[in-house]
Amino acid sequence: MKRFDAITPHDPAPALLESVAALTRLVDRDSQPEEVVRTVRGWGQRLCGRIAPDASVLNRLRMLNFFFFQELGFHGERSGGDWADAGCLHRVIERRAGIALSLSILYMEIGRAIGLKLVALEFPDSFLVKLVCTGRVLVIDVSDRGATLSVQQLQSRLASTCGDADADEGCGALQRLLRGVPEDDIPVRILRALRLRHQAAGRWAEALAVQSQLVELRPGEREQLLDRARLYERLDCPRAAALDLLACLRLDPNTPDAGSIRQRWARLQEQASRLN
Fold it and tell me: Where in the sequence is the domain holding 232, given as residue range(s)?
């Protein structure tokens, strides 16, 4: 089993916690994202101080599980859940309960502080964490109090959600899922889920605020601009919608739908001129 020469706190992906914590302002204007980050990082430092420099990976994992589930008292509400719920990370900390994604973000942050190499995994109807160490990989279900899952259990989960598949296809699907989720995609997907929730409820101004965050995170993606332009149109803001459409055309003037976008842009420009 792998051992570490020093117990030095490190944070290979500092943006994940900070990015997800920042989303709480879109759900609760009174939330304090910086306090969320400070609290979680403080937990990591506290646990780090308890671990011997030569502690093995498995011992560190056991201490993480005891600290997270027993001492801090976190527990899962349900295995999957709507990704939009992860935008309430401050409430997860207050209630010590949340969906698998929210718990996994906190768990990985604390675990990385004590030297564990943890990777986010998305499974159908669930979210898991992979622990990488020399000679082996452990897959952890944080929503089930840190239970480790065997290959057979993972394949069974896939089969129950994806239907029957031959052995080679099932093995290939499992290998793809075990590669992990790009962590900069996680805040984007949370925002998309939040926007869809607002749209379904007819909260168009709130949906626009969320979509504007998506544009900031993905400034070169024309789909983000097109989605925001549609929201501006619904809110009777033709000038702002026209600007987003113009930005889309500048990103890719030869796109197949360029003609229809130009027609929409001209119509919106005319509407905006009548407002003057």
Answer: 185-275
- On whether both 137 and 238 belong to a single domain, the answer is no
Give the separation between CA 251 and CA 249, rounded to whole angstroms: 5
Candidates 17, 10, 32, 3; CA nearest to 104 is 17
**Residue 121 parent element (H or E):** strand 117-123
Residue 176 predicted with pLDDT over 90: no
Q: Which tokens belong to 240?
A: 């702002």
Q: Max Cα separation, the chain?
A: 72
Binned at pLDDT 50, 70 and 90, residue 159 comes out as confident
At residue 180, the pLDDT reads 87
Same domain for 134 and 201: no
Tens digits of per-residue pLDDT, 70-123? 999 999 986 456 788 888 999 999 999 999 999 999 999 999 999 999 999 988
In degrees and rounded to multiples of 5, residue 165 shows phi and psi of -150, 155
Cβ atoms 213, 227 nearer than 8 A: no
Contact 245, 265 (CB under 8 A): yes
Both structure tokens of 140? 């952890």
Query: Total structural domains in the chain?
Result: 2
